[in-house]
Specification:
The chain is an alpha+beta fold. Among the domains are: 56 residues, Ubiquitin-like (UB roll) (Roll); 94 residues, no CATH class. It has eight helices and eight strands. α4 packs across α5. The N and C termini lie far apart (123 Å). About 13% of the residues have low confidence.
Length: 231
């Protein structure tokens, strides 16, 4: 009789042991898991959109569109010679007529240039030139009431003028008067081109520069200056 009682007790003990072992294992696993509020928040990068971002961020972005050229802005002119596959760069301070221009105004002014970059401290413009790069020395001066470009005539003019003064035909203070005669006799050698721009549309200061003779070094500088005077 006693043996018959042992068998159910043993089975009951095994069942209780299995159940107890399962409960203990479950408690251990649950204890090791983090609570819902213990999860780390996801990292948010600065370039991600944030619906709660301060309004001043939008204001700063808009202000970039309204950047203007100031006297301290550096203007970078790039001249790309297609036949040479060559890029020549000229950096300078902004001329007075570019001061306070916005990006849109500058693009309108230099309509045939490519605006590479525009910022309040640095502006880069590029122009493609379908010819070869050739260093030159030019003189921009008035001719028949208009702006004209001459090849270097200084040495030949000085010799010819000294002879004209020595012959008594001109006085030493009449160099400007003799210049017209000299060019008329040597157009094919020294006259490069005459612009359609009359001197009268220039400011008094610019007129003085042209009448005295504005020396230009290189084709790059010549292109830029002529575009300014012909605009």
């Amino acid at each position: 009789m006693a043996k018959k009682l042992y068998v159910p007790l043993i089975i009951l003990g095994i069942v209780l042991a299995v159940v107890l072992s399962y409960e203990i294992t479950s408690l251990v696993l649950l204890k090791g898991q983090p609570k819902e509020d213990e999860f780390e928040e996801p990292i948010t990068y600065e370039d991600e959109m944030d619906d709660h971002a301060p309004e001043n961020i939008a204001i700063q972005a808009d202000s970039l569109k309204l950047s203007r050229i100031s006297p301290s802005t550096r203007i970078i002119y790039q001249y790309y010679y297609t036949m040479d596959d060559k890029l020549v760069t000229d950096e300078c301070e902004p001329p007075y007529y570019l001061i306070d221009m916005t990006r849109n105004q500058l693009e309108g002014y230099y309509s045939d240039w490519q605006l590479i970059s525009f910022a309040s401290d640095r502006v880069v413009l590029r122009k493609s030139i379908n010819e070869r790069d050739s260093e030159g020395y030019y003189i921009i001066r008035e001719y028949e009431g208009k702006i004209a470009v001459f090849y270097d005539y200084t040495e030949a003019f000085e010799v010819a003028f000294e002879e004209a003064v020595a012959s008594g035909k001109y006085r030493s203070e009449e160099a400007d008067l003799y210049f017209i005669e000299f060019i008329n006799m040597n157009k094919e050698h020294y006259l490069r081109e005459v612009l359609d721009t009359p001197m009268t549309i220039l400011s008094p200061e610019e007129q003085v520069k042209i009448k005295e003779g504005l020396i230009v070094y290189g084709d790059e500088e010549l292109i830029r200056i002529l575009e300014n005077y012909s605009s």
